[in-house]
C-alpha cells in the first residue's frame, strides 16, 4: 500500500476561516473518495480526518466546528445532551481511528514494537474565543483521562491556527 497516494494539504472545512486549506500535508483518512479508510476496507468506521507524522509522534487530527455542532444539537436536545453527544462522537472517532491505525500496521507489515512513534490526537476547532478555551480545556481533560496513557500519549484540543505553527 502506498500511503503517499492519500497525502494532501489539510482542509479545515471551516466555513469561518478565510484560508480553509492549510500549507500542511497529511494522510487523508476520512473522505468519501480516495481515502485511506476506504483503501483499508473500513469505510464504515468513524475516524479522524488525517494522520500526520511529526518528529517523534504520529498525530491523529480531527478538525471540526464543535461550536456549531453544539448549537445545532442544543436546539433539539438541550445543553447537557448536546455536550454528551459531541463527546461520544469524538470518543468513537478516536477509538475507530486507533482500529484503522492497527489495521494499517498489519497491511504494511510494520511491527508495532519497532515503531518508536508516540500516538497523539489533535482535535482542532474552528473558533478561538476565551469561552471556547474553557470548554475545550474541560473536553481535553475528560478525553485524556479516558485514553491516556493506555491508547494515546496525549490529546490536545487546539484552535485551527495553531495547527500550522505546530508543524513548521
The general outline is globular
Helix content: 40-55%
Cα-to-Cα separation, first versus last residue: 27 Å
Which structural class matches the secondary elements?
alpha/beta
Strand order of the largest sheet: 1-2-3-4-5-6
- What's the alpha carbon Rg, rounded to whole Å? 16 Å
Integer average pLDDT: 84
Stretches where pLDDT is under 50 for at least 5 consecutive residues are: none
Number of domains: 1
Query: Could you give a short account of the major beta sheet?
Result: 6 strands, mixed
Number of strands: 6
Number of helices: 5
Keywords:
alpha/beta, 5 helices, 168 residues, globular
Describe this structure in words.
It is a single chain. The protein is of the alpha/beta class and about 170 residues long. It has one domain (about 5-165). Helices cover about 40% and strands about 25% of the residues. Strands 1-2-3-4-5-6 form a 6-stranded mixed β-sheet. Strand 5 (about 120-125), helix 4 and strand 6 (about 155-160) form a beta-alpha-beta unit.
